Amino acid sequence: MHLPGRKGKGSWRSLVRLVTLAALLLPSASVAADELETATLTYEARDVGARCPDAESFGRQVAARLGYQPFVPAGKHRVVVRLSGVAGRVHAHAEVTRAGSTTPGARDLESDLDKCETLTLALATAVAIALDPIHSAGAPSAELPPLPPPEPPRTPPDPEAPAREITPPPASVPSREPVLLFATAGLFAADWILPGVSLGGDVGIGARIGRFSLEASGRLEAMPAPVQLDSGDQVTGTVFSALLAPCVHLGAWVVCALGRVGALQARAPDLVQTNLGTTIFGTLGARIGYELPLSSVVAFRALASVEAPLVRTVLEIDQTSVWVAPPLTAGLEIGLVVSLTPSPHQP
């Protein structure tokens, strides 16, 4: 028997069921789309001066790409960003570790130090995409390598299964700072180590690990012309010396202790016996300088130093003292620092 009224009633009930199901599903989909990712941020910047953004600025760069601030003290995920500057270059390394995973996604970028702002913008885009691909869909494609999926939940062990020996994971080996070799060359002027102002040059070699360096150099300096002493005698002199300087680098600034040992030879050109003899001398002192990168391997530097002689030199003519070295000497130097070891972050 054909009953058209029942068919219409069944279609109406089906429509009601579909509308009800859609109403239940739509809020769940909306919550999933609006769920915001959070993370803790560890940000380190070393030897980059003021040319790179700080942690707060980097956080704003990431937030600008997501439309919200993902970095909170107790964030769900973990982000580590490290910037380091070496010889006019800056290397950026980022790691994003998702909650429930032990293997981070990583990204390394490098550029000249004066382009650090552009580099961190690209790194912020990469971190934003790695944290929340949905909200950063409009960001440029500088993304990090795909993050590993969360580890599946572990099933409880079978109490009847035989016990297995658990091998502890190997202890992580901390990363070691690379040893960077460099060479130096410079011109300098000094006063009070000889009776008059002396001019000269030096060459040296050194090694640097992180913020610390050790430099050894050889110097030759001489007075450009004789000077007349209070006794009326004219004298001139030459100094050969070796210098050792342990230093601390604070961005572009460098602060050093220094020690020097050498030989001082004096002459009196107006005397029959012009050679006044050679004496050994030594000094201890300090110097401060500024290094300006000219390229990825060459930097210009200027140094100012103060030294105190361990034994003050005395010049004698006819067994009479005619000059005694002052208790302090001072000098100014300009020169170049050339990197002999490429940065480990360079491709």
Describe this structure in words.
The strands form three sheets. Strands 5-6-7-9-10-11-12-15 form an eight-stranded antiparallel beta barrel. Strands 1-2-3-4 form a four-stranded mixed β-sheet, covered by helices on one side. Helices cover 17% and strands 45% of the residues. Helix 2 crosses helix 3. With 347 residues, the chain is of the alpha+beta class. The termini are far apart.
**Biggest β-sheet strands, sense, barrel:** 8 strands, antiparallel, barrel
Residue share in helix: 10-25%
What percentage of amino acids are in beta strands?
Answer: 35-45%
Number of helices: 3
Overall outline: elongated
Across the major sheet, the strand order is 5-6-7-9-10-11-12-15
**Regions with little confidence, pLDDT below 50 for 5+ residues:** 1-12, 18-33, 140-148
Oligomer type: single chain
Q: Average the pLDDT over all residues and give the rounded result.
A: 82
Q: What is the H-and-E element order? A: HEHEEEHEEEEEEEEEEE
Classification by helices and strands: alpha+beta
Care to count the β-strands? 15
